[in-house]
Amino acid sequence: MSVRIGAISVGGMGVRFRRPGTQKCLTLLSGRPILEYSIDSFVANKVKLIFLLTGHLHEQISSYLVKRSLQGKDSDVVVSAVYGGLEGEIGALRKLRPFIDEDFLYTEGDTVFTNRTVQSLISKADRHKDGVAVLSVSKSVEIALKHPRISVDSLTSRIASIAVTDQEMENNRSAKYARMGLYYFRKKVFPLLENIPFGRPPSEIIRYALMNDLPFFASITTNPWFCLHDQEDFKKWNRSDVKQYFMD
């Protein structure tokens, strides 16, 4: 089974990235904008329509799309900007509801992952059609120190708990996977979003699902990946051998 639609959040201010005046997702990472890694991974998995959820510096995303079109990169896929506003990812996701009436992929614009990771996520979703969503998680927590920790029921693959704060992580020893910021959402996720306040991260969707006994599954990957929250992560990329997996 394939999924036709993807969405990528690219509206954050990126203050911690220390590149004022530049949208973080357009920062070059080994010669390519960070954003392109996600776009290319979606396209490699037959996604045909990709929404870029913009916010701060949205005009730079528009300019990027014009340049991308002139380069002829989107001959068989449509990449379109949707203004998601300045109220965080939950608010931006709500803006997609008029455009989507089917399952879709979603990722945050600061995570780099392999094509195989996306393929595994789609396969997992195909096996668990009763869930609200499937989230890619990884044991490689050392490269995602700021990402929430997830515990997974080994028999059902359902997410059992999420630990967001340092104290929660300390108290929940079973939360041994890192949230990658890559989701497969069922279209039925949209009504859930109405119950989550603006400004909250997508991990709040998991919390809400757990509180209401709604199945939220995990796709565990051992494939290489990387997240870039701040300048130190950018430096870490340049020192890491992980980047070799993403070179053309």
From TrEMBL:
MobA-like NTP transferase domain spans which residues? 8-159
Superkingdom of origin organism: Bacteria
What start and end residues bound the annotated signal peptide?
Answer: none
Gene3D superfamilies, alphabetically? Spore Coat Polysaccharide Biosynthesis Protein SpsA, Chain A (3.90.550.10)
Family matches, as Pfam families: NTP_transf_3
- List keywords of the entry alphabetically: Nucleotidyltransferase, Transferase
A GO term, aspect molecular function: nucleotidyltransferase activity
Specify the protein name. Answer: MobA-like NTP transferase domain-containing protein
**What taxonomic ancestry is recorded?**
Bacteria, Candidatus Staskawicziibacteriota
